[in-house]
Specification:
alpha/beta, single chain, seven-stranded parallel beta sheet, two-stranded parallel sheet, globular
């Protein structure tokens, strides 16, 4: 149970997942501070629109800031006095991380370390870190379980997320800072970033343009609706990692546990849109893994996490949102 007026700082709250988490938190009547730098990875106008939508849900403080800037974040933490920090801000995406590895290291590693150090200094009660299924790399073991120790990330993005997890563990071990790392599996839904497959493919299908199909279409992804991810984040806020561990640290997979091949995803999108997809074959992209598949038994057991949105239903909801949003943009 999240107590009303709990002071929560949410980084990356203007983005796709962050804005949905913020919406849920406002429903719990918390004192919410959102930090986002509104970077140009994709149009800042999308994030500003997310914030406008949030303002119709409830009141919150919003600050434009870079999580890797110690002084700016120190001032924000001193003013907000958060009891809980939910850290979702990151440079995202496998492909761009191959081209800008130093930027990804600065934001995702240095930024996370900066935030953890400030949490220690300001006496934060708990940190929740948004990690990624990409930390598993091209593992042959599936479904992926949290107790796998042979993690071999194959992109700079994945490596930075694993580094963030390790810093969370270090601060839990050294300073008893409770930390929960949530490994998100291919999240989709309303407000999804335009560079992600489901959004990108939908836009191309709707406009009659070809979609890029990398490889033979056999790669599999554990597509997870954002509403299920949000439910997992809220459950993590309520979970006490000291109940089962001497070190207050825990890792959970948040996925759907039903991987779908790329070819099948395209067929489902054709069904949802009522339009035929034009396919443009491409070679496999460096850094892409062949499969993501979450074992969610641990999250089910300890968080009560049970995803409720099948992919076919989630795609219909996404198409409905996409068409309404596209109509508003054209108006």
């Amino acid at each position: 149970m999240i107590e009303p007026s709990t002071r929560i700082l949410l980084t990356g709250g203007a983005g796709f997942i962050g804005s949905h988490v913020a919406e849920a938190l406002l429903g719990h009547a918390v004192q919410l501070t959102i930090v986002d730098n509104l970077d140009d990875f994709y149009s800042p106008d999308w994030k500003k629109a997310n914030l406008e939508e949030l303002r119709r849900t409830g009141d919150f403080h919003f600050l434009v800031a870079d999580i890797a800037e110690p002084e700016a974040m120190h001032e924000i933490m001193a003013r907000a006095r958060p009891e809980i920090v939910i850290h979702l801000a990151a440079r995202a995406g496998v492909g761009p991380s191959l081209r800008q590895p130093r930027l990804y290291e600065r934001v995702n590693v240095s930024g996370t370390l900066n935030l953890l150090e400030l949490c220690r200094v300001h006496g934060v009660h708990k940190v929740i870190f948004g990690s990624s299924s990409s930390v598993y790399g091209a593992t042959s073991q599936s479904p992926f379980t949290e107790d796998q120790v042979e993690l071999r990330p194959i992109s700079p993005y994945a490596a930075t997320k694993l580094a963030g997890e390790l810093f969370c563990y270090t601060y839990a071990h050294l300073f008893s800072l409770p930390a929960i790392c949530l490994r998100f599996f291919t999240v989709y839904g309303p407000r999804q970033r335009p560079d992600l497959a489901i959004h990108k493919f939908t836009a191309l299908i709707e406009s009659g343009r070809p979609i890029p199909v990398y490889g033979d279409g056999s790669t599999g992804r554990d597509y997870t609706h954002v509403s299920d991810i949000v439910a997992g984040v809220i459950a993590a806020i309520e979970y006490d990692p000291t109940r089962t561990n001497a070190i207050p640290f825990e890792v959970f997979n948040l996925g759907n546990s039903h991987p779908v091949k790329l070819n099948e995803l395209i067929c489902l999108l054709e069904r949802a849109t009522g339009k035929k997809a034009l396919r443009d074959p491409k070679p496999l992209q460096p850094g892409d893994v062949p499969l993501t598949w979450a074992d969610i038994s641990k999250a089910g057991r300890l968080l009560g996490y049970h995803p409720a949105t099948p992919l076919a239903d989630g795609l219909l909801k996404f198409i409905e949102w996409y068409r309404a949003a596209d109509s508003n943009r054209r108006a």
